[in-house]
Amino acid sequence: MKLSTYLKDKLYAFLIFAIYIIILILFLIALKLTSSIIIFIIVFTVVIFSLILLYDYFRKRKFYNELLDKLNSLDKKYLLIEMLLEPNFLEGKILYDVLDEVNKNEHDLISKLKKKQDDFKEYIELWIHEVKLPIASLTLMNRKDKNTLRVLKELEDYVEQILYYVRCENANNDYLIKEWDLDTIIKNVALRNKDDLLALDIDFKVDNCNLKVLTDSKWLEFIINQIVSNSIK
């Protein structure tokens, strides 16, 4: 907050103070005081008024500058109130209380949205697991029909894709990171797509994959499968 901005905001105070000084001078003259005493009283009054304004300016400047600096540095603006100390002047206290109320409201809203999101995710995961059962049954019933198996395989991939996309919002809760053979993961992907690869006479060549990797095998297998599946299409 600039001093010039603060002084402009206090124009009404300067106007009232100027009227007060004029009345004070007239009153002191009426008392027939000497000029030196009148000047001393006026100067003393002006100094006290100036000191009060400066004190008020510096305490407000500290709060508002801190407010703006932290607002600009935060990505999540609703956390602003948690970074501030409650000020000791009325306007600041009112603003602090307003920000605190907004922050509480924002937290409540986020909690409600997160609960809805979690409920929806749980429902989708349950639905996907239910859908997988008839797909598995149809696969067994049509194990000799390659065209039907290919369609069912594609349907299963789409269902699994939905499952992983739903889980990716909270992927850190689903990760199981440890050492895996990259070659084994790629072979699993090849086996999942063997019918399509054979039907389309596609050679699946793998070079230099005899490596150990730190990963979650299911997630990496899903990602590689998406690449292979899209390449086949």
TrEMBL record:
Keyword match Transferase: yes
Keyword annotations of the record: Kinase, Membrane, Transferase, Transmembrane, Transmembrane helix
Keyword flag Transferase: yes
GO molecular function: kinase activity
Sequence intervals crossing the membrane: 12-31, 37-58
Protein name: HAMP domain-containing histidine kinase
Species this protein is from: Candidatus Onthousia excrementipullorum
